[in-house]
Structure formats: C-alpha cells, structure tokens
Amino acid sequence: MLAYLLESLKIRKDLGDKTAIAESLNNLGSITHKLGQTDEAYEHFREAFKIAVEIGAIPLSLEALLGLTEFLLRGGEGEKAVVVLSLVAHHEASSQEIKSKAQEIFQGLLEGARDRSLQESWTRGVELRIGEVEEEIFPK
C-alpha cells in the first residue's frame, strides 16, 4: 500500500497536479502515521497543508490540519490542537467525516480536562481562518 501511494505521488508530481499531490500527501500522512512512521507522517501532512493553502483547496487543507493535530497533542500543545480541531469541526468546507473526527477527538480531550482552557480554545478556533493557522499554530 505504501509503495503504491509513493508511486502515485511521484506520478502526480510529474504531472504537476497540485490538488492531486496534496491528496496523495494526506493519504501518505495517514498511512505512515498508522505504520508508526511519525516523522514522515508529520512532513506529509505539513506539505499537504502548505500546497492546499497555496492553491486554495480548503477541504484538503482542513484534512491535513486534522492529521497535524495528533502531533500538537503529542508535543504538549493541547490548546493549539483544540483550536485547530474547532476550526476543522466548524468550517463549512469540511466534510461531515472530517467534522465528526474533529469533534470526537475534542470530546475525548474534554473527558480528561480539569479546567476551562480547552473550551476557551474551542471557542477561539471557531473564529480562526485557515490563512491564520500557519502563523499562529505552526510557527517556523
């Protein structure tokens, strides 16, 4: 499966189809994450997000952001992750599947929360725009 996705990405890059490239990168991010290849997964999701924002493919950028929340959580950035989850869950361009996944992750976080900071972050994410995410959530 992984070899097939890598070959697909190569073909799409050769064709120069940026939408298809972002799709392949999101798929590779998901698969490599499931295989425990977290560094590769992170890079795939970041590159997918960057390309998707560049070409205005909002649903693809939201999918990449959802994949990146796992890395924010692992890095102890729970509040930032919740902001991103909220953006994904409330954005009109998110598919119902992506919205549901974001809400499910958030509910799981709320169960273990002791304070209101996560709820405040959720509220903040509703107002966030995709263009603001990279500077605010993923600084260089």
List keywords for this structure.
single chain, 140 residues, mainly alpha, Serine Threonine Protein Phosphatase 5, Tetratricopeptide repeat, 0% strand
Please describe the topology of this protein.
Elements: H1 2-15, H2 18-34, H3 38-55, H4 58-74, H5 78-90, H6 96-112, H7 117-127, H8 130-137
Helix pairs in contact: 1-2, 2-3, 2-4, 3-4, 4-5, 5-6, 5-7
What's a concise summary of this model?
The chain has helices at 2-15, 18-34, 38-55, 58-74, 78-90, 96-112, 117-127, 130-137.
Structure description:
The protein has 140 residues and is mainly alpha-helical. Helix content is 82%, strand content 0%. It has helices spanning 2-15, 18-34, 38-55, 58-74, 78-90, 96-112, 117-127, 130-137. Helix 1 packs antiparallel against helix 2, helix 3 packs antiparallel against helix 4 and helix 4 (58-74) runs antiparallel to helix 5. The N and C termini lie far apart (32 Å).
Q: Report low-confidence residues grouped into runs of 5 or more.
A: none
Give me the strand/helix succession. HHHHHHHH
User: Could you estimate the helical fraction of the residues in percent?
Assistant: over 70%
Structural class: mainly alpha
What would CATH call the architecture? Alpha Horseshoe
Q: Largest beta sheet, briefly?
A: none
